[in-house]
Amino acid sequence: MNFAATVLLVGNGPVEAGDIALARGFCSHVVAADGGANAALAHGLKLDATIGDMDSAQEEKTPETHGEIIRISEQDSTDFEKCLNTISAPLFLGVGFLSGRLDHELAALNALVKTTQSVVLIGEEDLVFRLPETTDLSLPIGTRLSTFPMGNVAGVKSRGLAWPLDGLLFSPNTCISTSNHTIAPEITLTNPGQPLLCILPRIHLAATLKLFNS
Predict the structure, then answer these.
(1) Which CATH number goes with the domain that contains 112?
(2) Mind listing the pLDDT tens digit for each residue in 7-40?
(3) What angle do CA 91, 104, 12 make, to 5 degrees?
(4) Do 155 and 55 belong to one domain?
């Protein structure tokens, strides 16, 4: 299943009305990752598809309520990964993946660096995405910008951060560079295709989406 515009992907964690309101205006389609259908329907969203092993979606599943139903029984991937492996879109905005169970959150972050698709996950306070090869962002001076490596990372460069990333060797058990912040209105990060996450306050969603819509 291929979508030509941004997809709102709803996970099985807690989803607040504010999450939907923040993301919905940027999305043309809605897809649920299994039990995410419960939250999507509760918030009045019309689903294009529901994907997963179907062990969490509570209501009777029909095409009228759940859109196209794609059941994938294997247990070697999460429902989030099943969605990313089954459908394609220029961009996915995910809600319901950074709240609730910690193991689910960690699995979602792991999926971000495994997929080749563009994904931004929205949490209660922050948003997170894998840094592309070149990142140009317009942000207010003093904006918190954290990076977190999901493996060994080298060769990253930055311009406009209080603590430059140039020359650092990142890994989960050494350097991670959280709680950095901007010192210029325009910042640039270069990441040579490595598993490095960027974390920003969610109020900067619109600025972040310009990375993927250029």
Answers:
(1) 3.40.50.10240
(2) 999 999 999 999 999 999 999 999 999 889 999 9
(3) 65
(4) no
